[in-house]
Amino acid sequence: MTSERTLTSVAWLCVENGRVLAVRTEGRDAFYLPGGKPESGETLARALVREVREELGVDIDENGITPEVTITAAAHGRPGVLVEMHCFRAPGRGTPAPAAEIAEMAWFGPDDLPRCAPAVQRALHHLTAVGGWDWSPSLAA
Predict the structure, then answer these.
(1) Sign of torsion, CA 26 30 35 41?
(2) DSSP string, 26-41
(3) Cα(35)–Cα(92) distance, rounded to whole angstroms?
(4) Are 123 and 15 in contact (CB under 8 A)?
(5) CA distance 125 to 16
(6) How many alpha carbons lie under 13 Å from residue 22 in its C-beta half-sphere?
(7) Pairing assessment for the beta strands 59-60 and 92-93 based on DSSP bridges
(8) Mean pLDDT in residue range 117-134
C-alpha cells in the first residue's frame, strides 16, 4: 500500500477568445495553469497574486478574485502525490510573458488535453461543463 500526500496549489483560469492560458516550467513536459504553492501563512488569494506576477508579470487585483473550482488529481511526474488545485478567475492587467521558472506559455482549448498535467485536464473539462470557454476576457491592457 502506498501512502499518498497532498500538495495544495492555486491556479489562474485566464480565458481569452475561447482559450485558456497555460504554462510549462523548465524541465517539465506537461503544461500547467499559472499559479503555484502558497507560502507558509499566505492566503490562497495572496498566493495567486504573487505567483501570477512572478511567472507572467501580470498583476491581479486580490479583490477581483473569484473561486471557480477545486480539483484533486495525481500530481504530474510525482508518483504517490496528489495535488489539490484551487482554481480562480480574476481579471489581470498586463501582457503575459514567461518569467521566473516558466519556459513556455501557450493558449489552449479543449483539444489540447493531452499536453496538460492531469489536474489541468480536469480544469479544462470543468470549463467545458460550465461554459467557461465563453467567459469575458481575463486580461486588460
Answers:
(1) negative
(2) TT-SSBB-SEEPPPTT
(3) 13
(4) no
(5) 17
(6) 24
(7) antiparallel
(8) 94
Q: What's the pTM?
A: 0.93
Contact 35, 25 (CB under 8 A): no
Cα separation, 19 vs 8, in Å, equals: 25
Are the CB atoms for 34 and 69 separated by under 8 Å? no
The contacts of residue 130 (CB under 8 Å, 6+ apart) are none
Dig out the grid coordinates for 134 from the structure.
465563453
> Which stretch of DSSP H or E encloses residue 47?
helix 44-56
Q: Are 85 and 44 in contact (CB under 8 A)?
A: no
User: In this structure, are residues 33 and 10 in contact, taking their beta carbons and an 8 Å threshold?
Assistant: no
Q: Report residue 122 as a C-alpha cell.
A: 480536469
| Whole-angstrom distance, CA of residue 119 vs CA of residue 35 | 13
Query: What is the number of other CB atoms lying within 10 angstroms of the CB of residue 126?
Result: 15
pLDDT in tens, 24-57: 999 999 999 999 999 999 999 999 999 999 999 9
Q: How many CB atoms lie within 10 A of CB 8?
A: 13
Whether 99 shows a pLDDT value over 70: the answer reads yes
Looking at residue 141, what is its pLDDT? 65
